[in-house]
Amino acid sequence: MKLGALGLPAYRTFSLEELEEATNNFDTSAFMGEGSKGQMYRGRLKNGTFIAIRCLKMKKSHSTRNFMHHIELISKLRHCHLVSALGHCFECYFDDSSVSRIFLIFEYVPNGTLRSWISEGHAWQSLTWTQRISAAIGVARGIQFLHTGIVPGVFSNNLKITDILLDQNLVAKISSYNLPLLAENAEKVGHVTPYSGSINPTNSAR
């Protein structure tokens, strides 16, 4: 699988200062939603690239080294039919250097969910049957990549139509993964509203 042929920058470590600048110090205007898998923010990097940032508060005290096997898996989540991972950032406590928060940075997908295009409709455009079939094939290819394109594979996603986002070219991208890091280490902070159905990124882009 050629992960470098997606037009995406290389996966990298972001600094907290970069993320603060991209979100105006995590201002409420950049806030996209909150759920059991953390808080979501929309940001803009210095080069103009828009990003989606998931903030996870750790409930267990571990060093950065303990999370590297999770980061290695996340760094592989780069596919034309996934909301691809761009990088991560660790925030650590001053006293013992254990991780207090992890920020996961993903590409920003601006056109809302597949459900909103099919069920709710858009006044300016609706999907043709060819586009709907293309979206279904794209989702299938994304699932195939999660199952067989990375090691270990990512399974049991409980995928919903609200978890499928459409990019500027109406290419379908899976936005929710069943990652061990999210399930095992993130604090529960309310109802699940991940970067998917109940958050329409286009509202934040205006």
TrEMBL record:
SUPFAM superfamilies: Protein kinase-like (PK-like) (SSF56112)
InterPro entries named among the record's database cross-references: Kinase-like_dom_sf, LRR_Rcpt-Like_S/T_Kinase, Prot_kinase_dom, Ser-Thr/Tyr_kinase_cat_dom
Pfam entry (one): PK_Tyr_Ser-Thr
Main localization of the protein described in the UniProt heading: membrane
GO MF annotations, alphabetized: ATP binding; protein kinase activity
Superkingdom of source: Eukaryota
Protein name (record): Protein kinase domain-containing protein
Organism listed in the record: Citrus sinensis (Sweet orange)
